Batch of 2 targets.
Target 1
Amino acid sequence: MTDTILKLDGVVKEFAGFRAVGGPEGLSFGVRRGGFLGLIGPNGAGKSTTFNLISGVMPPTRGSVTLDGAEISQLSTAGTAALGLGRTFQTPRAFGSLSIIDNVMVGLAHPEEGPLAAMLGRWKPAERQFLGRAEAALERVGLAGRRHDSVSNLSGGELRMLEVARQLVREPRILLLDEPTAGVDPALQGKLSEILAGLHAAGTTLIVVEHNLGFLMSLADSVVVLQNGALLAEGTPDDIRRDPAVIAAYLGADHEA
Amino acid sequence: MIQSLILSTLMFGAMFSVLTVSLNLQYARGGMINFGTVAYFAAGAYAYAIFTQEPPSGLDQYAFGFDMPWWAGFLAAGAAAMLFALITGWPTLRLRGEYLALTTFAFAEVFHSILLNERRIGNGSVGMANVERPDPAAIGLGDTLGYTLAACALMLLTAWLFHRLLASPYGRLVDATRDDEIAAESVGKDTARVRLQIFVISAIPIGFAGALYAMITTLVAPALFSAEVTFFVWIALALGGERTILGAILGTMALVFFQELVRVIPFETVRGAQIAASAEEVITGILFILVLRWQPWDRLSRKAGS
Ligand SMILES: Nc1ncnc2c1ncn2[C@@H]1O[C@H](COP(=O)(O)OP(=O)(O)OP(=O)(O)O)[C@@H](O)[C@H]1O
Ligand SMILES: [Mg+2]
C-alpha cells in the first residue's frame, strides 16, 4: 500500500452553474507522501482551481479533500498553511510596500510577531536568526543581491522566484507550484529545477502545474492530466507521454513520444 | 494673545493628533477606512464622565455616576473605546474600502442618536456638565498649560508606541496584510485577526483622547460629538499626508492653528464673527480639495526618493 498524504474524493467546483472542476462524477486522485506529482492539462482544464480548492482559497461545491486523513476542504488558506501546506500562484503575488528580504521574512512564523511583543521590543533576538534563514532562501533562488530592492523593480520571472523563496523558508511538508517556469529564463529554470529536485530528495511532497513539459516530465514521478475539470489520465510520465487520449487532447498529434 | 493662541493650538492640536495618528495606523498601514472615528472618541468621553460623575440627583436623568477618581475614568475611557471597536469591528472588518467606510459611519450615527435619545446614558441632548477633572494646580501648573502638557504627553506616547508597533515583525505583517491578504494567508497568517487587532489597538488612544477632551471642556454632550469631528480629523490627515506619523501630527496642528486663529480675531460685530466662521469652513474645504487634487506630499516624497 502506498502512503497517501493528500487525497481528493469526488471534488466538484461550480461557478454560477458552470462546472470548472469535477466533470460528471467529481475529481478524485491521491498524492503519494514524498511524491512529485505533475498536474497538466489544456488551458481552462481546472488546474489552478484545483490548487485553490486544496489550499482553501475557495471551498469545493462538494467532495472532500484530506491531508493526512484530516478533512481540509472547509479550512481557510491560513488554515491549510498552518498544517504545512505551501503554494504559489499562477500570477505571482508580492507585498508591494515591503523590501524583497521582508517579502521573504513574512513567510516565517516569527515567534514574537504579536502587537505586544512589538511594543515591548521582544522580537529582536529572534529576528536576527530569521534574517539569516530568509537570506539563505534568497540565495537559493538567485535573488540575494537584490535583498533591499523594491518589489516593483523585479521582473515577472524574478517575482515568481521571490514567491518560491517565501514558501521555501517555511519548509512546507507539501508544496504546490502553479506554473513556476512561466516567464522564467533558462538559467533560472535550471536553478528552479535544482531546488525542486533538492526538496524532492529531502522528502517534501510536490505538486506542480506546468505547461513546460520538458521541465516537468524530467522531475515528476507521476502525472495527473485534467481536461474540462475531469481526470483524463493518471500515471508515470512515460505512460502519459504514450497515452493516446492525452496525445489527442493535450500533447498534440505531432508530439514526440 | 499670541501665547494663548499657541497654547490652545498645542492643546487641541495634540489632542486631535491622537485621533489622526490612530487613523493613520488604521488607514495608511491597516488599509481600513473608518468614517466613524467620532464614536470611539465619544465612547471615551462618556465613559470618563460616567465613571467620575457623582451618582444622579435632582433633575439628573442619567442612570449611572460612579464617583470614581479621574484616573479610573481615564482607564475606563480607553477600555470603552476598545470595547466599542471590538463590537463594531468584529462584524464589519470583512468589508472592504468604501463599504467599511459607510458601515463605520452608520455605526457612529447610530451611537450619536442613542446618546441623544437615551437620557439614562448622559442626560440626552443636555449632556453632563461640570465633569470632574484633576487640577493642574496640584503640581503647580496653570489650567491651560497643564492640559496642554497632558495632551502633548498623550500624543507623544501614542506616536511612540505606534512607531514601535510598526517597526517590528508585526508591522511587517500589517503591511503584508494590507498589500495582499491572500498571499499573507498562503504563508499561514490570520489576516482577519491582524485587521481586527489594528482596528482595536488604534481605537484605544482615541478613547483616551475623548477622556482628555471631557476634562478640557468639562462637558460631554452629543452636540460635541457629531460627524464633523470625523471629517475634521480626516481633513487633517489628508493635509499632513497620510503616510507618516509626523505628517499626521503636522497636518492636525496646522488645521487647528488655522481654526484657533480665526477664533482669536476680535470682531466688532456678531455679523463679522459669523462671516469669519463661514469663511473658515470654506477655506478648510478649499484646502482639502487642493491637497487631494495636487497631492503635494506624494510629489515631495517622490522627489526625495529619486
Ligand atoms: N473565480 C472564478 N469564477 C468563475 N470562473 C472561474 C473562476 N476561476 C476559474 N474559473 C473558470 O474555471 C475554468 C478553469 O480555470 P482554471 O484557472 O482552473 O484553469 P487552468 O487549468 O489553471 O488553466 P490555465 O492553464 O490557463 O492556467 C475556466 O473556464 C475559468 O474561466
Ligand atoms: Mg491556471
Target 2
Amino acid sequence: MTISNQHKICAKRVSVYYGAKKAIDDVSLNFDQRYVTALIGPSGCGKSTFLRTLNRMNDTVPSARIEGDITLDGEDIYDPSMDVVQLRARVGMVFQKPNPFPKSIFENVAYGPRIHGLAANKTQLAEIVERSLRRAGLWDEVKDRLSDSGTALSGGQQQRLCIARAIAVDPEVILMDEPCSALDPIATAKIEELIHELNGRYAIVIVTHNMQQAARVSQRTAFFHLGTLVEYGATSDIFTNPRQERTKDYITGRYG
Amino acid sequence: MSLLALFLVVAGLGLIGWLTARMRAVAFRRGSTARFSSLPSHFGGYVALWTVLPAALFLAVWAATSPALVTNSVLKDPIAAQLPPPGFDRAAILSEARSLAAGTSFGAFNPLAEKLAPAYAVAQTQIDWIGTAVALLLVFATGGFAYTRVRPDFRARTKVEFVVMGGLLAASLIAILTTLGIVASLLFESWRFFEIVPITDFLFGTHWSPQVIDPADPGATLGAVPLFWGTFLIGAVIAMIVAIPFGLMSAVYLTQYASGAARRWMKPILEILAGVPTVVYGYFAALTIAPAVRDFAVSIGVTWASSESALAAGLVMGVMIIPFVSSMADDSLAAVPASMRDGSLAMGATSSETIRRVLLPAALPGVVGGVLLAVSRAIGETMIVVMAASGVATLTLNPFASATTVTKQIVDLLTGEAEFDSPKTLAAFALGLTLFVITLLLNIVALTVVKRYREAYE
Ligand SMILES: Nc1ncnc2c1ncn2[C@@H]1O[C@H](COP(=O)(O)OP(=O)(O)OP(=O)(O)O)[C@@H](O)[C@H]1O
Ligand SMILES: [Mg+2]
C-alpha cells in the first residue's frame, strides 16, 4: 500500500453505525484524482452510507456514528478542526433524485458561489454560472431562460443543473449517488457523457446499480456486500476477471 | 300519549324488528352453504331502519304541524267567534288557553281563555290520537314490508350502507345549511340597515359614534372606517408583528434544531397555549398588559397614553396567535422535501443558511397562507378586544392611543337596550356581514395558496 497522502481521498478501516446497527464494516478504500470510481453492490449493502461519509453528510443523521480515518489530501476530515463548510465545498455531491432548489436556474447555480463568497461582483457571478452550466452541458438549453424556476426543467435537465450547481464551487471531488436512476436512457447517456468530460478535472465517485454504466464510465470499481468491501480494482478486471466468487455472481446477475 | 313516549315505542318496535329480522336471517343461513351478500345484522338493520325511519319522519313533521291543526279546529268552536281579530291579543288568549288545556298553568288572565280551554283539550286529544295511530300504522306497514324482504338473496347490506351514507350526508349538510342560514339572516338585517343608512356612508364614513344618531342623517355618525382601521391595526398589524416572528422562529427551532426530547415537550405546550380560552387572554390583556403598556408609554413621555390601547390588545392577541402561526409554519417546513435540505447542506451551507435561503423560501407560500388564516382569526377575535380594547373609535396610527374593533363594537351595539330595528342595532349586522365577507375572502385566498403549495411538492 502506498503512502496515504498520494491519494486524493484515503479511507482507512472505516466502520459506520446507525445506532447499534453496523452499516459499514471495516472498509479501506482510496480514491485518486482524475479517476472515476464506481461503487456497486446489492441494495442495502451500504454504498450510500459509505459515500456520505466522504463529505460528512452522515453528520445530518443523528444516530450515525463513524469509526476509522478518512483523509482528503492527507487531512483528516473528521478532525474537530476540520471545517465542514470547506470540506463540502471541496467534496461536492449529486443526489439520486434531482433536487434543484425552488429558485431560478441562475440562482440554483449561484447558490454555492454566493455561500462561499467566490464571486466579487455580479459579472463574476454570471461568469461562474455560465461556465458551470457549460461544463454541465446545459448552457445551450437554458441560456435564454436563466430566470425560470429550476424545478420547471425536465428530470435529466434538473440532474445536470444539480451537477452544474455542484461544480460551480470548483470542488476537487464529486460524489454521485445513483445520479441516473430517475432518468430515461437518453438523459442517462447525456449524464454519462458529462462524467467523461468531467473526468480529467475531478475525482469522481459514483454509486450505480447499472453494471453497464459502471463499466462505461469508471476506471475503477469497488464491490460492496453486506457492509464490507469485497473487491476493489480496475473496472476492466472486475468485470472480466473478478477474483472473488461473490463479485462474479453479482456482476453476472446471479445475485440479487 | 306524549310525543316522547311515542318515540320510545317506535324505537322499541324498531328493536323488535331488528331482532326478528336477524333471527330470520340466522335461520336461513343455518344449514345453507351458499354465500350471502349480507350478514344477519344487515337484515336486522334494514328492517329496523324501515320500522323506525318513516314513522320518525312522520312524527317530526307532525310535531311541527299539529299545533296549527289544533288551533284550527279550536277556531271552529262557536266561542272562538268572540276572539279579537288576529293580532297580539288574539295570539295571547290562544296561548293562554293552550297552556290551561295542557295543565301547565292554572288560571288565566283572560276569561275568554278559560272558556276556550276545554275546546283546546278536546282538539289536542283528537290530534294526538290521529298522530299516534298514523305513526303506529306506518311502523307496522313499513316494518312489515321490510320484513317480507328478508330473503337469502336480498342485498340488505347495500341498502343499509345507502342509509348510512344518507345520514352522514345529512350531518354534513347541517353545518352548511346553518352557515347559509346565518348568512341569509345577516344579509337580511344588513339590507334593512342599508335602507336607512347609505352603504357609502357606512363603508367610507370616518365618524363612528352610534350613541348619538341624528334621525335625519343616521349615516353621519355610522361611518365604520375607524372600526376597520382599529381592527386592522390590532389584528393585522400589531398582533402579526408579534405572532409572525415568534411563530416562525419557534417553528424553525422545532423542525430544524430541537432534539427529539425538546420537541416532545415543547410542541404540546404550544398546543395547550392554543387551547387557553380567549377570555383568559382577555383578563391578562386588561389587567396586566394594558396597565404595563400605559406605564411604559408614560415613562417614555407619551402623556396621553390610553389604558385601553391598541397595543395592549394587539400584543396579547399576537401571543394568542403564536401557536397557530407556529403550527402552520411547522407543517409548511415539514412539507419541504428533505432532499432540499440535504442539497443545500451538501453545498457547504450551514443550517441557518439552509433555513434562510432554501427552506423558508420554499415554505413561503405555505407560511403566507398560514399567516392569512391567522389574520382572519385575529380580526374575528372578540373576547380579548371586548375586555382590553377601547369603546371609542379613533382613527389613529398611534399604538398607545385607544382603538376599537368591529367585533368589540358589535358586542357593544347589541348589549345595550335598543329596539331591534333602530339603525344602531342594525349596524351590528352590517358590521357582522362586513367582517364575515372579509374573513371569508381571506380564508379563500389563504387556502388556495396553501393548496397550490402542497401540490407543488406532491
Ligand atoms: N438513516 C438511517 N438510519 C438507520 N439505518 C439506516 C439509515 N440509512 C441507511 N440505513 C441502513 O444502513 C444500511 C445501508 O444503507 P445504504 O442506504 O447505505 O444502502 P445502499 O447500498 O445505498 O442501498 P441502495 O442501493 O438501496 O441505495 C441499510 O441496511 C439501511 O437500512
Ligand atoms: Mg443508496
